[in-house]
Amino acid sequence: MVTASGELLPLAVAIAISITTIITTVLMLLSPKAKSRTVGLLVGCVVGVGGAVALFALLAGLLPTQDSGGSSPAAAVIKMVVGVLLVVLALRQWRGRHARDDRAELPKWMAEVDSMMPGKALVIGLLLSAVVPKNLLLALSAGLIVGEAGLSGGQAAAVIVLFTAIATSTVAVPVVAHLVAPARLRGPFEGLREWLVENNVTIMVVVLLVIGVVMIGNSIASL
After folding, report:
1. Among the listed residues 120, 128, 153, 133, the one whose alpha carbon sits nearest the alpha carbon of residue 90
2. Is 183 exposed, middle or buried (0-12, 13-18, 19+ CB in 10 A)?
3. Tens-binned pLDDT, residue by residue, of the chain (223 aa)
């Protein structure tokens, strides 16, 4: 269980550092009726991450294993492919970055955050946490690790809960902080939003490259 948790930690952190999700959270916190929207977003993120990892963990149990009980060659190959795809995503994001003198722009759908209903915020949370390619690939890798760890049902559930808590912490912490002291945090949230908009590509490229290369190396070692 400890070994699986250690392997899952960098993947959970990589999901947590999802700049689009963090910016969406900050925008909702700065909007009217922020409480209902951000709670909906948080619920969507928790269900999305936890559900995706649990589903992939169940599917991992269907993969053939070695006679010695070691790691599944099929799982190792899948992790290697995921690692390569993460590196490709990093390179694509770097090539598509805005020019130095151009101002970074937010996606058009974010303009609707101010008027978004809690139900739609929940759906957005599901999509951002479990459907976008980067997080889907990371959830797949996490599910494979949990499924191969030979854990009991209770242990697997505990590991997935811990993974989900870490992966969604960058949404949960600002939401809870806003509930405690909304007026005091408005200025810092606005500054954070501007910084993230300007630096999101660099942050994500570094995260994707590091996780992708590590996954490729670990997969090669386990074959």
Report:
1. 133
2. exposed
3. 777 788 899 899 989 988 888 888 888 888 877 888 889 999 999 999 999 999 999 988 777 665 445 567 777 888 888 889 989 988 887 887 655 545 556 667 777 777 788 889 999 999 999 898 889 999 999 998 888 887 888 889 999 999 999 999 999 998 888 888 776 767 777 777 777 777 777 888 888 888 888 888 877 877 6
The residue type found at 166 is I
171 close to 22: Cβ distance less than 8 angstroms: yes
User: Which among 223, 164, 195 has a CA at the least distance from the CA of 22?
Assistant: 195
d(CA 192, CA 203): 14
Measure the CA–CA gap between 75 and 78, rounded to whole angstroms: 5
**pTM, full prediction:** 0.81
| Token duo for residue 212 | 């992708």
How many Å is the Cα radius of gyration of the chain?
18
CA distance 157 to 146: 9
Nearest to 144 by CA among 132, 156, 126: 156
| Residue type (1 letter), 3 | T
